[in-house]
Amino acid sequence: MIRKIINICLYGGTDRKTYNLIRRKIEKNNAKTVLIYSSVAFVLVCIMFGLSFVLDGFASSRNIFAGGIMCSLALILISLYSDKIRILSYVAIYFSFSIFLLYGIAIAVYSRPDQQAATFLVMLVLLPMIFVDKPLRIISCLGFYDLLFLFLVSRVKTGSVLYSDITNALIYGMLSAACSTIVAMNKINGLVLENKLQKMSEMDQLTGLNNRNCYEWRLNEYKTRAKDTICCIYIDANGLHQLNNSEGHEKGDLMLKTIANEISAAFGSMDSYRIGGDEFVTFAIDMDEETVVSKLHAANKNIEEAGFHMAVGYEIGNVKNTDLNSIIVSAETKMFKSKSEYYKLHDRRRR
Fold this sequence. Notes:
Helix content: over 70%
Number of strands: 4
Low-confidence stretches: none
Shape: elongated
Strand order of the largest sheet: 2-3-1-4
Number of helices: 14
Radius of gyration: 30 Å
């Protein structure tokens, strides 16, 4: 029970490992949300700032509107740079919270001290439904500003207005804490499901490697990820068809899994793909040829000890001067040559 409560407060009902898998998506979604809302806020505050010179009812809040313009611009800039500096996505969330809630407090306490607070209470309930983060952090932030509001209104307001604001702040504060937790749990669980579905669409179910869909989606990323060189390694499982016919598909599946495990162990699962029935591709980024050959030799040795064979072709090119497709085609050509040599020798031995 205690563990469940901790997971709800810290990870929205999931666990630490699962939450970390979707953390980047949460950060990107929050950054986009901040950009949209801060842009809308900028336009609205600019309009109200202009009206403050025309309408007496807005004149008393002119300084607040001017501050809102500056803060909205700051939020726009922060959200735009959050892709490069990840922590800025969290700065954007809680800076947004601070701006909107402080704006509501300023309106309630200083601009209209003789009226019941409305803007602050709306912000208190609305803001947690917009952004996604760990429920405990959101509740702590809301609790801080709710207490600040209670402290300030108790020093400025009197009578029935004071009593109404205190009562509403307590009620809406608790309501906001409950709603923010429920909303965060639903959004986090939705992102977890989305992440699982995405992995299923990108993963080869037999070997656990990335599949052809993933290969085609990520192909354009390699030119930007590599600083110096990129190596494409093309691999084919020799004799898979014959093995399936002679010893059954379970043996053929074992062959594919063995090759996939060795590729993944040598070059990492992130850049390794099963792109066909017996074909694999893996990329080595900024890795020298000697290291590539050494890793291939070790992987091939383990595969042959397991009683299987693979044909390999690789090509290394400078990322700035060489087209990635030409590197892949060259590696594939070399693989076919290796495969042809294997079958010539294999057929001769069989005869």
